Amino acid sequence: MTTTLYLLNYINSIMENQQITNPFKVIKMDNGEDVVCKIITEYKDAFIVERPMAITENQQYHEELGEIVSQTGLARWMNFTNDIHFLIAKRKILSMANLAPEVSFYYKNICEKLTVAEKSQLKTEEEVVDKMKQLKGNLEDLVSELGDDSNVLPFSPPDKSKLH
After folding, report:
1. Which of 18-27, 57-66, 127-136, 154-163 is least confident?
2. Of 29, 82, 107, 108, which has the most beta carbons under 10 Å away?
3. What's the total number of domains in the chain?
């Protein structure tokens, strides 16, 4: 019994030290997902993570090899949000490990590109409405610049009674 307790304490101390030295982790969730992220804060029952990304596997046919090849990549873990920080309950985590250096480099590179892209993201619904008005105005300007539409042929569906 004391050996088990000693091992648990030892493993906990290792995990705490790893977390401080390397915040970049791969997490195995209880639903089978693998998530790559940066741990920002640890609480008793949860982690705050930054920019979690799901590990995806896509299969494509490789013409030169003549076979199907698997490609592994990263995709947004949670869609339809601009948030970059998420709370993950510890009870949903099966396992956690440090990212391999090459995956860490790849993940950081993607995060840098996302940071640049986020600077131009719309932040509020009002900004979305304003952008839509701007696009509508641009479209109206373009239509008025084109002017006369006499050089445009009307589209008519093909006559299916004739063979070509």
Report:
1. 154-163
2. 107
3. 1
Per the CB < 8 A criterion, the answer to whether 38 and 105 are in contact is no
Is 49 among the domain residues? Answer: yes
Distance between CA atoms of 96 and 77, rounded to whole angstroms? 16
Does the residue 154 lie in any domain? no
Q: What residues make up the domain containing 135?
A: 2-143
For residue range 113-158, list pLDDT tens digits in order: 999 988 888 888 898 898 888 888 888 877 777 766 666 667 777 7
CATH number for the domain spanning 24: value is 2.30.30.100
pLDDT score of 35: 96
- 124's tokens: 């509020």
Is the pLDDT at 7 greater than 60? The verdict is no
Question: Going by C-beta distance under 8 Å and a sequence separation of 6 or more, which residues neighbour residue 110?
Answer: 53, 74
> What pLDDT, on a 0 to 100 scale, did the predictor assign at position 19?
44
Residue 54 lies in a domain: yes
Give the sign of the dihedral formed by CA 6, CA 12, CA 14, CA 17.
negative
Query: Is residue 155 within 8 Å of residue 161, measured between CB atoms?
Result: no
Which residue is listed with tokens 């990212």? 99
